[in-house]
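Everyone, study these two lines:
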Amino acid sequence: MFAADFPEWLVRLAALSLGALFGSFFNVAIYRWPRDLSVVSPGSRCPSCGEPVKPWLNLPIVGWLMLRGKARCCGATLSPRYFLVEVLGAVLALAVAERYFIGAEYGMSAIRAGLDFALYFAFVGGMIVATFVDLEWMEIPDEVTLPLVAIGLVSAPYRTGEEALDLAVGAGAGFLIVQMVFVVSYEQLFGRRGMGEGDAKLLMAIGAFLGWKAVLFALVAGSFQGLIAAGISLATGKSFTPNPPYHERAGYEDYEDDEDEEDDEGEEGSPMKLPFGPFLALAAIEWLFFGPELLDRWFGLFESQLH
């Protein structure tokens, strides 16, 4: 069968449903990976009292609305992040389906279009998880980035319109630019790191999926969007990072290095302490859907200024 044989309404409905379901899994990963917990077992539990969540209350999007943001078991407030991530999963799955399945080239098989959808949805899902973990913990789990690098490079010959060499160069460039310029060199010059190794691995994953142009775009656009966020943070006096650190608010007891804890407390309270991963992830998703159009407008802006 060809991709065009499937009714568009059915593809959209399936994408929204799958996106919401996987959004529920993304929430599990966001909560458990930073705590070194398994995402497989145990099943979903209340983050406050640990009571298992009933299956009919665990429905993506609908479950949070039914509960009105409160746990049925103990009445604890449920973070709106659960609802937001599931909605993002559904919306981005629909966007990927529009581009890679509904918008597939004429005559493309449904299997090939479905593979493109699955791979690029895995990529945007990884960007969602990386974003919310980095916002709460100021770190990006290897469980997100390293599998994305492997999937991106291995799947290169099977993805439509991608060149394996371009993706390999992108992955290498993404890691080395951050590691050599913003980690090693920046630390030598200023005594602290400009970016973390998690950011380097995230850029490596972006390069492995989207190529070296996307890496450069993510660095430039991510920095620009980060500056806007920093300006908002300074203007409002509100930090983008948890204060006190998330693991302390949640009763996380594995953080035992007193010296590191003091250092973190001094930095976490600063409005300028911004996680860079969310801005890299946002720029990567922008490139995925609008890359050529963004470049055309960018160069068109320069040409109009020259004339």
